[in-house]
Amino acid sequence: EALYRQVIELNPKHSFALYNLAVFLEKAQALNSNKQQQQQQQQQQATTDGDDEAGAMTSSSKMGPEQREEILSLYERSVAAQPKDSIGHADLGRFILEEEPDRANKHLRRALDLNPDNEVALYYHGLHAFENLNDTAAAQAVWQHLVAVNPSHVNGRRRLGQLAVRGEDWAEADMQYATLLEALLDGDKSSLAGEGGCERSASLLASVRAEVFSVMAIVSKQGSGERRWRCFELA
């Protein structure tokens, strides 16, 4: 962190230092948030009164306004200094998607103009189409492109599996969840890069397994319980 700040002090338009400092600070905030969440969960488990106050504070304590503004400013300055950097546009779009979806999508689209195979931009562009535009077909097309670029992309496969379940396309859901579980069990952390990747992977694997069992419960209720899902061999 200190090195990046020194570089920026010498050259305020050093796009590499601006971008990497933003990434560093964002990861540091995420790690702190995860630690706080674990502590809150432990406190909740130790109580019997059902108090949800700690859980309610988790989201608001993930990142303070000052930290968020600094990180946002760094991403924006990085893109301004290097406007043809697909990665910078993608991460800026990802960072502001929840608060500013329209502006975020402009950066995501710009990232894809510069690099049509940018995985971050593809995932969050699909997320914008699904959550903000309610355009399932567009989201599905983007995520299909994503898994074509990276067949082991965990979140892309999971989203496609969820869409398949919504559409009651059980064969497609089977394929997506099976591939997803294979990627996790093979230790492919390409979509979980960064510190704490192993812990996040284990947590995601448990979550995906629970999700698959939930899907199978739905299938059974609909009279298709005899369908043998390959993904259960892995779960």
TrEMBL record:
Coiled coil: none annotated. Gene3D superfamilies: Tetratricopeptide repeat domain. It holds the Pfam family TPR_17. Residues 34-68 are annotated as: Disordered. Residues 36-45 have a biased composition (Low complexity). It comes from the Eukaryota. This is Peroxin-5. It comes from Octactis speculum.
